Q: What sequence folds into this?
């Protein structure tokens, strides 16, 4: 079936707002539609293009000297829409030219880069399987089976492979590596008992970090009989694994014995972290370590604290 269609730009303008049909799909763009924010235009058109089987290829906008966006244009081949800022502060679709030169297959829209997405629970599954030594092909196939088929996923095996490769490094933003290095250097200048170490991969990229303040090292000497070790994923844009060594002082208060940022949860990385922490604490092992039931963590403890 050919899904090509045309809508003339001479269609009478109407004071429309975006509507959804019973299946949750957005309606076809029409001249006269209103949007409050420019982000709403992008989100609406991206959803519309996705359900038809293509993706946004080009975006333009005109901004005044005071930073006000006067109009927005979004294009895909010959298809384009344009929204213009009105006096009431809303954006109005003034052009809705919907024309295609090829057949559209809605189910194929998941292959466009802008539509690809790996949800956080799936990311964790990929990482856990990778840490367990499961190859990428088997790892991805297990997720495909659980999801009910390839069409149920918004990513492919190469996306999974790329994610796993990146997951083995710290998810740092531009300039963050330099900022961390500068911070560690600054802290050591202020107090020589500040401890920090950086684990690099074969490409020289940061893979894991560990640091402990002088107060943490002093606290461990007094209250380091029992240590609680836990990991949690930071709920920020980096979504990194944060590791904590915690103890309890004579007032029953929690005290920090050290922190780590980890790229993965495999035995090798936990061994690296525990060895660095042990070195930081003058090779004095605790009498007991309290952890969760993570098997890779338990394996590392047996290796470093026999």
A:
């Amino acid at each position: 079936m050919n899904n090509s269609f045309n809508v003339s730009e001479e269609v009478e303008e109407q004071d429309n707002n975006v509507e959804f049909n019973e299946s949750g799909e957005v309606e076809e763009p029409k001249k006269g539609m209103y949007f409050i924010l420019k982000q709403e235009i992008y989100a609406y058109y991206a959803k519309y293009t996705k359900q038809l089987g293509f993706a946004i290829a080009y975006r333009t906008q005109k901004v005044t000297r005071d930073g006000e966006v006067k109009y927005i244009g979004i294009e895909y081949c010959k298809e384009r829409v344009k929204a213009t800022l009105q006096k009431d502060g809303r954006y109005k679709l003034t052009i809705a030219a919907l024309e295609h030169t090829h057949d559209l297959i809605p189910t194929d829209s998941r292959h466009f880069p802008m539509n690809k997405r790996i949800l956080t629970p799936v990311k964790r599954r990929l990482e856990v399987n990778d840490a367990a030594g499961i190859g990428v092909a088997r790892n991805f196939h297990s997720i495909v089976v659980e999801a009910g088929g390839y069409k149920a996923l918004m990513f492919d095996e190469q996306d999974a492979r790329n994610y796993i490769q990146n997951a083995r490094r710290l998810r740092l933003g531009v300039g963050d590596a330099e900022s961390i290095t500068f911070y560690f250097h600054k802290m050591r200048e202020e107090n020589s008992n500040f401890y920090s170490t950086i684990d690099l991969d074969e490409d020289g990229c940061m893979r894991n970090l560990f640091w402990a303040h002088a107060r943490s090292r002093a606290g461990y000497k007094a209250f380091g009989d029992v240590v609680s070790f836990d990991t949690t994923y930071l709920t920020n844009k980096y979504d990194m694994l944060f590791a904590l060594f915690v103890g309890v002082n004579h007032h029953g208060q929690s005290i920090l014995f050290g922190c780590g940022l980890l790229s993965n949860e495999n035995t090798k990385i936990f061994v690296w972290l525990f060895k660095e922490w042990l070195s930081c604490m003058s090779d004095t092992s605790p009498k007991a370590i309290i952890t969760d039931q993570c098997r890779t963590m338990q394996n590392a403890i047996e290796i470093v604290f026999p």
In short: The CA atoms of residues 228 and 290 lie 5 Å apart.
